[in-house]
Amino acid sequence: MNVLDAIQSRRSYRGKYKNIPVPREDLIKIMQAGLSAPSGCNKQTTSLIAVDDPAILSKIHRVVDPPVGETAPAAIFVLTQRINAYRDKCFAVQDYSAAIQNMLLAVTDLGYRSCWYEGHITDDDRICDEIARILGVPEDYELVCFLPVGIAEEEPLLPIKKAFEEREWFNSFPRT
Predict the structure, then answer these.
(1) pLDDT, tens digit, for every residue of 45-81?
(2) N or C: which end of the chain has fewer CB within 10 A?
(3) DSSP readout, 131-156?
């Protein structure tokens, strides 16, 4: 699959996963894709933890409420460090967002499905903090997202997108 095909066929998958393990070699490829993303001023604020141990996944799923991705045989947890870069600006959000997008494209390329779960775990109930404790994440890192990874039981629905012409222009914003 070329990158443009992966971009066009990537979908957020919120369904059930087949009970088929994801080989570590594939998890490594996905994480390498993530860590190959650009990083503001090369601060490399993004780190990753892949979990494929069913016992650890089970502990994590017990704290995720409402449950999501609970049938995935693996998950990748995204960590960030808030490190200031150029002009005392922190680009951690941009860094981990680029890493997540790269990983979602790699997931698609390798024949798996996933979904970007961030707000679900970083909301006021701070599920991310419970997950971080389970994973032994140090205090100077923040767990910001998780990506369940596996083979989908069913094909995801194609989302309804606005027409290309409604969101793209050349040379200036159109006048109404």
Answers:
(1) 999 999 999 999 999 999 999 999 999 999 999 999 9
(2) C
(3) HHHHHT--TT-EEEEEEEEB-BSSPP
